[in-house]
Amino acid sequence: MGQTYKIAVLPGDGIGREVVPEATKVLEAVGKKHGLSFAFKEAIIGGAAIDRFGTPLPEESLKMVKESDAVLLGAVGGPKWEGLDYSIRPERALLRLREQLGLYANLRPAKLYAPLIAASTLKPEVIEGLDLLVVRELTGGIYFGRPKGIKPHRGGKKGINTEVYTTKEIVRIARVAFEVARRRNRKVTSVDKANVLESSELWRQTVIEVHQDYSDVALEHMYVDNGAMQLVRNPKQFDVILTTNMFGDILSDEAAQLTGSIGMLPSASLGDLGKTGMYEPIHGSAPDIAGQDKANPLATILSVAMMLKYSWGLDVAADEIERAVVRVLSLGYRTVDIDMNGGKRVGTKEMGDLVVKELITPTRRRGYSADADEPHS
Fold it and tell me: What percent of the chain has pLDDT over 90?
């Protein structure tokens, strides 16, 4: 056995505590197959940490995360903590993790697997073959800009949030988008609001300048309102969507629904090469189904596939996980969120077991190829 990869496991709240164990189970299975060793250490964050320590991100948890090679996150938050001050809500744990780890690039793929085409609300001819990637700037923009807060104002109050971007922040995220596009279909669509916002005007100018180093990649610009419309009108026109923190937050969730369920989409949050990356499903904590074995673990399982690919360059093992997921779906197995046509209904744990089984002993059957839905390199 060679190197041991240290993974900080942060289940968080709600269904996070159910889907994360299924992903670690899959990692262990692919590790045995490829001679990879993983060391998991669990830490508490989010609402659970607030209940126990009075803070969403205890220093001990942050210390453990910084000492790890990668982070696997479940989900945080829920109605229980919505009345708290913004400074100590569960979501602040995510923002602080991004800041402390320097995770400025969020990669959110939206890929429609053929067996799930009926789960989308869009017409099959509109979404068949959909495979796009949202590259979202993660540590700047309106979520971090200052001044911010709620202040007295003329007998009432005013809420302030400030959209701020520097040239340096835009350059580094643009380079990520262009580099990733080189591994895909060599097209970047930069989404902004340059006709109204000065921060977006700088965004567009800077992206154009960075593009001079990537003449082999096509670049187009689109205003965010048009981009939102085009995502449901003609989503297959996109390859890589490059955008700001807030716009990326919104557009990536819209793109998720094109694939049939937000429970299918993984994400990677990355910083400079060699530093700790964080991987998580983009769905929330879903407290309404927590503890009922109903949650879809596939987004979290696909997130660890991204971990193998982007943190350690283990593309073969990553692609095997994705193929195993596709095989399980092709065999008709469904969690409740993606079961539109009376499939073989399974729970969270059984879905994880099925992916492990397909990793160990791939199913072969008529009309199905193990190479179907080939992962994007």
Answer: 84
